[in-house]
Design brief:
about 260 residues, mainly alpha, Arc Repressor Mutant, subunit A, Tetracycline Repressor, domain 2, two-stranded antiparallel ribbon, 10 helices, 4 strands, transcription cis-regulatory region binding, HTH_TetR
Length: about 260
């Protein structure tokens, strides 16, 4: 089972004191039980915030979150420093939801085209199910309060870095120049992200149609580059070696993607 990466707020100089204080065991059983309770309670409030987001949209306020959680605002503020802290917690939860769907899809032992299609469908399913969460994080503010963190950009970085390693490993396997892996990865992620933002606002086609169009575009690029090197890959036949992305927690300020 792949280890899930915790949200790292690289663009924010501050992190929640509640998250830091509740993270590590102390050896004091009573205190540790209290800390676990606080962590669980905080997670409940994040889920309540997701419910409020679905109902009120990205303009929701702390009153809306408190109402969804069935508590008063002062209770919320015992678990979150401020609105920005809740925003970051929502970002962490959003990343968790996305990677839980996306990484298994990318790592599926399928032929190239079905694998691409499954990964794209995972991404678009998540933003279809949580459109207001994506809009809130992309906007970078909570209840008209700007937040010093670009969660969407951070997710883009995580995925592009992992995809760079994956593409590079396959290109080396076929004796191709892997120098193209990084710009390819960022190009693919940027295209998918921009298309996702367009689709959320327009909804001019079904998710299945959109996924199929993007699958064709991405495969055409891969197939074209491979053929330039005299390499023909059957799009509907699994490759002999299934390279996978492994995301593992490192420390509070860094993340790494590994291919095995």
């Amino acid at each position: 089972m792949l280890a899930m990466v915790d949200r790292v707020k690289r663009n924010s100089k501050r992190s929640s004191k509640h998250s830091r204080d509740d993270a590590a065991p102390t050896g004091d059983a009573r205190r540790d039980r209290w800390r676990k309770h606080r962590v669980a309670r905080r997670a409940e409030f994040v889920e309540a915030a997701l419910t409020a987001l679905h109902e009120h949209g990205p303009d929701l306020g702390m009153d809306d979150v408190a109402a969804a959680a069935g508590v008063t605002k002062p209770v919320l503020y015992r678990h979150f420093d401020d609105k920005a802290d809740l925003f970051l917690a929502l970002g962490q939860r959003g990343t968790e939801i996305l990677l839980q769907r996306l990484i298994p899809a990318i790592n599926a032992e399928l032929a190239p085209v079905p694998r691409i299609r499954m990964a794209l469908d995972a991404f678009f399913t998540v933003i279809e199910e949580h459109p207001n969460l994506y809009r809130l994080l992309a906007r970078g503010s909570f209840a008209e309060k700007p937040v010093d963190a670009d969660v969407v950009a951070e997710d883009k970085e995580i995925i592009a870095t992992a995809l760079t390693a994956l593409l590079g490993d396959y290109m080396r396997m076929f004796n191709m120049d892997s120098g193209a892996a990084e710009p390819w990865a960022y190009g693919i992620v940027g295209m998918v992200q921009n298309t996702g933002e367009w689709w959320l606002e327009r909804r001019s086609m079904s998710r299945d149609s959109l996924v199929e169009y993007l699958t064709q575009i991405i495969w055409a690029a891969i197939d074209g580059l491979a053929r330039q090197q005299g390499i023909v890959i059957d799009p509907n036949k699994p490759l002999e070696e299934n390279k996978v992305i492994r995301l593992a927690r490192q420390n509070e300020s860094d993340q790494q993607s590994q291919i095995s």
